[in-house]
Amino acid sequence: MSELSAIVLAAGQGKRMQSALPKVLHLAAGRPLLCYPVRVAERLGARRVVVVVSPESEAAIGEMLARAFPGLDIVTRVQREARGTGDAASAGVGAVDTPRTMILYGDTPLVRPADIAELDEALRADDCPLAFLSAIVSDPRGYGRVLRDASGRVTTIREHRDLVGPAEHAVNEVNAGVYVADTAELVGALERLSPENAQREYYLTDIVADLARERRVIAVQGDPDALVGVNDRAQLRRAEQLLWARKATELGQRGVTIRGEVYVDDSVSVEADAVLEPGVRLRGNTSVGSGALIDVGCVVTDSKIHAKAELLPYSVVTQSEVFGGAHVGPFSHLRPGSTLEMGAKVGGFVETKNTRLRPGAKANHLAYLGDADIGERVNVGAGVIVCNYDGFRKHRTTVGADTFIGSDSQLIAPVTIGKNAYVATATSVTHDVPDDALAIGRTRQQNKLGYATTLKERLGQAAKK
Ligand code: UD1
Ligand code: CA
User: Fold this and answer.
1) Domain residues for 393?
2) Is 450 a domain residue?
């Protein structure tokens, strides 16, 4: 059993976000901010995760967490009023029953398990009451400063607004907002907090000075990127960029070729030897198999791109599946429920929705295929439209294997076209076509010999009037 529990503070008002949505529910790289620290706690094997929430956000946060972490022991505790991080920690600590407690902030998504593991080790090795993460940064504004005495011992954390004099302002070691404490010592220190500061709040950071008076408090210096906190939208953007960059590095280390800048959400998996070209955006529950190519500017959401599939530039794929050897794009749109089986092909400017293209089926240019099942090796010509919607209901279209659908035809659903059939170019298919049949339905062409000149003269005269 783990001896460590986590308290995650998420009850602040987040005023600087200027948002109706609670701050910690804002998305960064595809997940609510709060998911990141909770997952860190999960990865460290925390016995229990106590999330401190405001009365207004309790329901929304509780629901999100239950969905995102079904197996984890998470409890929420309500902080009635946002009276500071110390008060929030007090609201949570009663639900902790392990000897040691980590405290994380809900708005710092870049903290990594390794950082906290290091704090926990320092705490145990040195038998001290509290260890916290700090970092040396070039721009310390807004963060609490770590102050040390002449011998280098940590004496206190001073919040930005409470700094005194230029020397304190110049301190560039800041508090990341990540702590591991001996639980009994923590409880004592929280009880002794008072709101004597610029904001009249109970600062969690004040436990440092309190505990450092009698024993040693350790600050472990970590990577400055890990502490980026999200107080406003500019910082949200910065945190998200760092999350994307971290993901790209991680994928690169696992054998994925990444060219230029890509935006891959935390939830996405990409196998070795896949290639992601510049500007690719992969979101949600998406997976990309080995050797797949996702070319420039593709946007893929909640989709499965199998090994050796290819998405050519600027294609958009949503809730769809593309099998090996299948090609999409450039400039194509697979809407929800589209499946391209092995070797199927959707070329430029094709839109599909709730449609299956069976192995080797092709729609190479400018087509719309909706609610359709396109058989093996079927060729769908340029400009073919499936008319699946009558303004009230959607209807299905089925095309059998080896059938040819000539360019500029309309398949007016519901309709079934058999195997090895042939739909002549520019046919409006209004009823079923049997296997092996030719369907042709278009007005017959007439040529009026010599009439072109006469017609042009007449039209020219008319235009002059
Ligand atoms: C805090 C630290 C600061 C540190 C910085 C790192 C304090 C007093 N200051 O400042 O030293 O450098 O984080 O990012 O801790 N919260 C509550 N209840 C409250 C107030 C806040 O639950 O009453 C939660 C917020 O939802 C947030 C977290 O605590 O997730 C941090 O609060 P915030 O107000 O953002 O603190 P900072 O000013 O960023
Ligand atoms: Ca913050």
Assistant:
1) 240-439
2) no
DSSP conformational letter for 410: E
Task: Tell me the best of 13, 61, 105, 115 to mutate to test the pocket of ligand 1, counting ligand atoms within 8 Å of each CB and taking the most.
Answer: 105
Q: How many residues does the chain have?
A: 465
**Pairing status of strand 173-182 against strand 130-136:** antiparallel
How many A from CA of 169 to the centre of ligand 2?
A: 19
pLDDT tens, 360-401?
999 999 999 999 999 999 999 999 999 999 999 999 999 999
Task: Please say which residue of 199, 227, 255 terminates a domain.
Answer: 227
276: left (phi over 0), alpha (psi -120 to 50) or beta: beta
pLDDT in tens, 399-426: 999 999 999 999 999 999 999 999 999 9
Specify the pLDDT at position 203.
Answer: 98
Instruction: Based on the fold, state whether residues 220 and 365 are members of the same structural domain.
Output: no
Ligand 1, atom 1, lies closest to the CA of 177
Distance of CA 284 to the CA centre of its chain: 5
Q: Which CATH number is 387's domain given?
A: 2.160.10.10
Q: How far is the CA of 108 from the centre of ligand 2 (A)?
A: 7
Q: Whose CA is nearest to atom 35 of ligand 1?
A: 231
**Residue 1 pLDDT greater than 60, yes or no:** no
Does 364 share its domain with 410? yes
- Indicate the number of domains in the chain: 2
Question: Which of the following is catalytic: 26, 160, 327, 365?
Answer: 365
365 is catalytic: yes
